[in-house]
Amino acid sequence: MKKYSRHYRRKVNYRNLLVVGLAGICAIAVLAGAGWFIYRTMFYDPFPQDESLTKSAGNVQQEIDEENGWMARYPDFEDEALDAAIEQVVDECRKGSGPDAKVMLDYRSKTVFDHYTSVLFKETRQEEKGETIRYHSVNYDEKTKQLMDVEDILRNQYRRDLLKGAEADAIQAIEINEKDTVVYLTDGSNTTIRYDEHKAYIALTDPGIPSLYPKEPLTIAEPQQIDPDKPMIALTFDDGPNPNTTPELLDLLKQYDARATFFMVGTNATNYPQVVERICKEGHELGNHSWSHEDLGAMDSADKILESYQKADDAIFEACGHDAGVVRPPYGSMSKLYDATVERESILWSIDTRDWESHDPKAIESIIDTYVCDGAVILLHDIHPESVAAMKRVLPKLKEKGYQFVTINDLIRYGKI
């Protein structure tokens, strides 16, 4: 019997094979895409390595939009005021980016002496004409919850003496460090100002920072609640402080929720620093009235004018850790040289009580009653007991008429002068 064997030839289904192959390719592509996405998200860092851009404060955030020429890293602190200031820097830099202008923003951050937060941004811009680098900064005082500008970090004639006379708008950024402050200028240069070498120019206050006031900052009274629709006047007191009369005046001002501006003579600030400290702590405005009541308008030297104000500034700062914001020349005496030399607001007056002449509380009161009006700047002297006595009647009377007792800066802010 013959045996027959059957041979079966399987027909290859190329269509199924193609489907399987395509599915495999798709799976590989999906896996590769997922892997690339994970890598880009978790590991890929398009920012050049720069060991100087240390990030020891804040949480790192980043934005990458390479199609529109934008890459940014910036910190988040979960502090409304600080984060808003950082967002403003980021927004301004983002506006300048695009296909023809690639912008990369990176930063370094630190907390100095436990309460100063300093963020320095480095903006690198790539355009057809080449690469440019600009710096921006945000500085913040954690204790006062206030953003800081250059004048909160450096004081006195720092631009003239330390920055070769640079204009204020030439300062691009400023960075706070533990031993120094670095100022970045628009011409691409930077200047390092060491605290231990320039104590008289340092406005930062902390026991660890060499300055004229190496102490904890003072706690200042809360600002007044001012109604801009109600009349306001500025009481200004010259020639103090005086250890006998100024404290009594301060008691009266506190009783009537009044703030005043004290134009202090430097020699008296040096002799009675505790009174200066109280003036500052109770929220009054610090004014500079020269070092020893010299006639600044009669001086023929710009250096002498500046020296008089600067010595008084140093005395006031050494007493309370704050500088005088406004100045008043003794006798109201100014000249063309004075105007060309002094950059700060020089404040005179609209009502002269002539208390130094009459030494009569009733006469002082009468002059104020006659000429008082919304926005008036009243000249008095806290070194005279009769002037303090006059305030015992003037303050309640004017308060009853609806007047608010504010500082010079408040009058300026509300457009009264």
Automatic annotation (TrEMBL):
- InterPro entries the record matches: Glyco_hydro/deAcase_b/a-brl, NODB_dom, Polysacc_deacetylase_ArnD
Keywords in alphabetical order, please.
Hydrolase, Membrane, Transmembrane, Transmembrane helix
Q: Which GO terms describe its molecular function?
A: hydrolase activity
Q: What Enzyme Commission number does this protein have?
A: 3.-.-.-
Segments passing through the bilayer? 12-39
State the superkingdom. Bacteria
The record places domain NodB homology at: 231-406
EC top class named in words? hydrolase
The name on file for this protein is Polysaccharide deacetylase family protein
The lineage, from the top, is:
Bacteria, Bacillati, Bacillota, Erysipelotrichia, Erysipelotrichales
